[in-house]
């Protein structure tokens, strides 16, 4: 129960009025930005990173925790009322939630999403607190080769295991890894691919890349689709509150969603959104009202939304204990840590326990604040949804460039932003996934360092990589995660081709 | 795999371009690695080795894309309006060029107006002033309160008493 004591200490530390204020600001900003259509949690966190530049590490990370949870919450509001999910994990919420809103039950849909998020966030954050010390204990025994194998597994699952195409996923990953080479090599001090440009010596900023690919890429893509295409915001009619029947139908999906979402998020592999799909499938099978599915079943909102939040808290387990980001959002959070010279991982628990535990405690606080703030403020968030698109995207681009200018006010950095933005646009246009680029950029140098350390220890013997049981198992899993989906796609190929032909108009 | 005859249709242009781009990047990384001193120490792996492996993988992916271009059915090209896209890119370029000479607010105001134009608000007489005021407000908040260093021009100095 060491986790419990430390968590209590963290809670006491996080009750500091200043820190509470930071958490409140974070939650409010996170929700406000997350609510904007087309902006998912990854982009919310990336756009709001500059707000935290001026604070001390503790305040900034706590504000960050608030932004993260707020962004998640805001995203669900958008998908329910607007049917434009900002991220793959909200697609399922949009499926049933938007139908509910159309049927005039938008209030209960938002309420079950909010309360479900709270329940899931609460349980998952507590699980994180209890699980983290044990994972840290295991992780301390990990050698460089084990870390390298872990990162290879994360690379494969993030890039190619769950997309439409192994080839496109791997290309995205290697674009990220290539970008990661730019700059001074951490072990030898040699400059690689910098071509004498001073800004390139520091390497490519993760936030610049993430903001460019998500914000600029998205804006260009939406602009390119042209036409009015203004999605219609569905007004919230009637009571926001859930009826007794809604409660009765929601609580089990919340718990089941949490049980499905957290372990999937906590695994040191990508694909955190799988939990929402699983939860939806489970609820659909267990429901007593199968006729409502597809027409706005409250279980179909409650379960996936809980799973979504639980897996988001779950991704913090590998992030904090192993320093391993398994989603684009986690990659940007890692960049946020790094701006203070903090490297998440088992050592952070030893060197900065106060910081880690007040961060986990403020996740609990942020979660509670969201519940209190958001149900009364739904009207305000809905108004944000009605901002006309020209103003909305103009504002998004201003903030996107603001972050880059604030971090490094040079035309070279802005030029990189522009190039990556165009690249993100083209990738989106032709169906290449974006997240592997971001994860590749941030994990690439770490993987290279661990690999070279492992090979130093073995004096260049490559078989060392599979000589420890942990690394051998992890690499075998990575191999399976690469090959099995390829075989599955190969088998399903005929059907997919016919489907494509049928879809063509 | 045998449903159609590859010679009956044109290869997938996107995959071809992808293959060419990946090949070019692979060559770029390989030549850069070649110039690095190979100082591998005990490990036998120096600063040039990981780039070489990545270049090799990129080369492999380029070949894969080349094969895919001839064997897989091309996806329907998404319909895009290029005008709005170019307006936004132009706005970003304008901001990049003007940032240092005229300061954050004016440069960013132009980006704001160009983006709004890309999304259908055509009246630059309205959007440019709105953008500049908006950017100035952001400048005052972020440079003033949050101590972010944003390039200041004459307009900002007027307000911050620079």
- C-alpha geometry of chain B: flat
Radius of gyration of chain A: 22 Å
Most extensive interface: A-B, 68 and 76 residues
How much of the sequence of chain A is in beta strands? under 5%
Total of helices of chain A = 22
* Element string of chain A (H = helix, E = strand): HHHHHHHHEEHHHHHHHHHHHHHH
Please provide a written account of the structure.
The complex is a heterodimer of chains A (505) and B (162). In chain A, strand 1 and strand 2 (191-192) form a beta hairpin. In chain A, helix 1 crosses helix 6, helix 3 (41-48) crosses helix 10 (206-225) and helix 5 runs antiparallel to helix 6 (106-140). Chain A has helices spanning 2-14, 17-35, 41-48, 57-82, 91-102, 106-140, 144-161, 166-181, 198-201, 206-225, 244-266, 274-286, 299-314, 316-322, 328-338, 346-351, 353-385, 389-407, 411-429, 435-457, 469-491, 493-503, and strands spanning 183-184, 191-192. Chain A has 22 helices and 2 strands. The longest helix of chain A has 35 residues, at 106-140. With 505 residues, chain A is mostly helical. The model of chain A is unreliable at 494-505 (pLDDT under 50). Chain B has 2 domains: 6-71; 82-160, no CATH class. Chain B is built from 6 helices and no strands. Chain B has helices at 13-34, 49-71, 82-102, 104-118, 124-145, 154-160. In chain B, helix 4 packs across helix 5. The radius of gyration of chain B is 25 Å and the shape is flat. Mean pLDDT of chain B is 83; it is low at 1-7.
What are the main properties of this structure?
heterodimer; A: 505 residues; 22 helices; disordered C terminus; B: mainly alpha; 2 domains; disordered N terminus
């Amino acid at each position: 129960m060491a986790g419990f004591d430390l968590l209590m200490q963290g809670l006491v530390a996080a009750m500091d009025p200043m820190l509470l204020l930071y958490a409140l600001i974070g939650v409010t900003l996170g929700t406000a930005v997350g609510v904007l259509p087309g902006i998912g949690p990854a982009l919310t966190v990336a756009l709001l990173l500059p707000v935290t530049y001026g604070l001390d590490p503790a305040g900034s990370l706590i504000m960050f925790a608030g932004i993260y949870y707020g962004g998640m919450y805001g995203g669900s509001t958008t998908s329910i009322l607007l049917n434009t999910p900002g991220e793959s994990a909200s697609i399922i919420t949009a499926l049933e939630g938007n139908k509910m809103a159309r049927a005039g039950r938008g209030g209960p849909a938002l309420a079950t999403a909010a309360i479900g998020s709270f329940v899931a966030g609460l349980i998952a954050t507590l699980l994180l607190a209890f699980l983290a010390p044990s994972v840290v204990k295991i992780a301390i025994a990990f050698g460089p080769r084990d870390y390298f194998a872990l990162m290879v597994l994360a690379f494969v699952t993030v890039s190619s295991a769950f997309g439409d195409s192994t080839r496109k996923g791997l290309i995205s990953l290697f674009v990220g890894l290539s970008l990661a080479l730019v700059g001074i090599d951490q072990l030898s001090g040699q400059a690689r691919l910098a071509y004498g440009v001073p800004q390139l010596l520091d390497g490519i900023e993760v936030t610049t890349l993430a903001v460019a690919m998500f914000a600029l890429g998205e804006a260009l893509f939406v602009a390119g689709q042209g036409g009015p295409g203004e999605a219609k915001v569905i007004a919230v009619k009637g009571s926001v509150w859930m009826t007794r029947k809604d409660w009765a139908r929601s609580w089990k999906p919340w718990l089941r969603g949490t049980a499905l979402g957290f372990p999937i998020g906590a695994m040191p592999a990508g694909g955190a959104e799988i939990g929402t799909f699983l939860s939806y499938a489970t609820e659909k099978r267990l429901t007593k009202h199968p006729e409502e599915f597809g027409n706005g079943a409250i279980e179909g909102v409650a379960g996936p939304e809980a799973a979504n939040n639980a897996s988001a808290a779950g991704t913090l387990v590998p992030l904090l204990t192993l320093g391993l980001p398994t989603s684009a959002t986690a990659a940007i959070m890692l960049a946020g840590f790094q701006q203070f010279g903090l490297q998440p991982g088992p050592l952070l628990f030893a060197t900065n326990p106060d910081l880690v535990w007040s961060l986990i405690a403020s996740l609990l606080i942020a979660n509670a604040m969201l519940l209190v703030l958001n149900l009364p403020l739904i009207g305000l968030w809905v108004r944000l949804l009605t901002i006309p698109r020209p103003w909305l995207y103009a504002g998004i681009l201003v903030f996107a460039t603001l972050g880059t200018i604030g971090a490094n006010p040079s035309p070279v950095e802005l030029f990189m932003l522009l190039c990556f933005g165009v690249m993100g646009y083209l990738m989106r246009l032709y169906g290449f996934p974006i997240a592997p680029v971001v994860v590749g950029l941030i994990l690439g140098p770490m993987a290279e360092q661990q690999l070279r350390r492992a090979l130093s220890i073995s004096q260049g013997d490559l078989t060392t990589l599979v000589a420890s049981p942990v690394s051998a198992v992890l690499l075998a899993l990575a191999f399976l995660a690469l090959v099995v989906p390829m075989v599955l796609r190969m088998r399903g190929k005929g059907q997919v081709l016919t489907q494509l032909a049928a879809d063509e108009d | 795999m045998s449903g159609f005859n590859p010679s009956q249709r044109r290869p997938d242009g996107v995959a071809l371009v992808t293959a060419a781009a990946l090949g070019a990047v692979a060559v770029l990384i390989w030549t850069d690695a070649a110039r690095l001193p190979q100082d591998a120490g005990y490990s036998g792996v120096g600063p040039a080795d990981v780039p070489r492996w990545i270049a090799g993988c990129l080369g492999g992916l380029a070949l894969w894309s080349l094969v895919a271009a001839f064997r897989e059915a091309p996806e329907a090209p998404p319909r895009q309006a290029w005008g709005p896209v170019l307006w936004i890119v132009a706005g970003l370029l304008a901001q990049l060029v003007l940032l240092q000479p005229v300061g954050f607010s004016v440069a960013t105001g132009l980006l704001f107006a160009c983006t709004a134009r890309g999304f259908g608000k055509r009246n630059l007489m309205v959007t440019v002033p709105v953008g500049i005021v908006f950017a100035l407000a952001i400048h005052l908040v972020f440079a003033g309160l949050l101590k972010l260093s944003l390039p200041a021009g004459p307009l900002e100095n007027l307000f911050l008493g620079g």
